[in-house]
């Protein structure tokens, strides 16, 4: 495991879920080398899918940017040493949902004309 404490950058998770994320990240770093970012991400994602239901996404690395839409209460971004971990449950953006509904309505209208 990397030396040092986890530093939370941003989160909207409940404290118990945050603790799970940090504990699982520490456990992952016991199983995998810090260079195995994909394996660490896979481990965290699968554990959160099992515990909190499917749909979790995880990004692990030392240099990445992100812009994601997540379910309320299901987002954490933290560091352990130089390793950054982003864990969140994905969600469709409200704008996307409206756009999809408009497309379905337009498609239905075209079928009625035909």
Write a compact overview of the structure shown:
This protein is α+β, with helices and mostly antiparallel strands.
Strand content: 25-35%
Q: From the helix content, strand content and strand pairing, which structural class follows?
A: alpha+beta
* Contiguous uncertain segments of 5+ residues: 100-112
Physical arrangement of strands within the biggest beta sheet: 1-3-4-2
> Main β-sheet, in a few words?
4 strands, antiparallel
Helix content: 40-55%
Count the strands?
4
Radius of gyration (Å): 18 Å
Span between termini: 63 Å
CA-based shape: globular
SSE arrangement, N to C: EHHEEEH
Task: Let me know the average pLDDT.
Answer: 85
Summed up, the helix count is 3
